[in-house]
Amino acid sequence: MRVLLDHCVDIHFAKLLVGHDVAHTKTLGWQQLSNGKLLSAAEEAGFQVLVTVDKNVRFQQNIAKRQISLITLNPRFVDYDQLVPMVDALLAILESGLPSGSQILIEP
Fold it and tell me: Which CATH class is domain 2-106?
């Protein structure tokens, strides 16, 4: 699956998503795009999923009407060590064939 990590997700988290085509907004120069513009750019570039820790995106955007899906990680603190325990759940979701326009919240 083609996955985009939002700028608020540690860039090193990408290497844990083995078996998927993962890019980060920083490497694409998209870190300054706002949520709606970021989702549109990601869709145009063929990304299927945006992974974020920004809990507001799911309330600010109508994901159901989009081609891209949104997975929100909800760790206690937003750092790499807090994200690592969520990798198995995230990989299981990615491998299950996530339908377009889905919104999923992963909590520790």
Answer: alpha beta
Angstrom distances, CA of residue 86 to CA of 4, 29, 63, 72: 16, 26, 22, 11
Q: The tokens 């990615």 sit on which residue?
A: 94
- The rounded distance, in Å, linking the Cα atoms of 66 and 86 is 25
In this predicted structure, what is the pLDDT of residue 92? 97
What residue spans of 2-79 are helical by DSSP H? 25-28, 35-44, 57-60
Bridge partners of residue 21, in order along the sequence: 2
Q: How many residues does the chain have?
A: 108
Q: Give dist(CA 53, CA 11) in Å, integer.
A: 12
Complete DSSP assignment for 36-47? HHHHHHHHHTT-
Distances (CA, A) of 34 to 13, 31, 40, 79: 21, 8, 10, 21
For 55-75, the pLDDT digits (tens) are 988 888 899 999 999 999 999
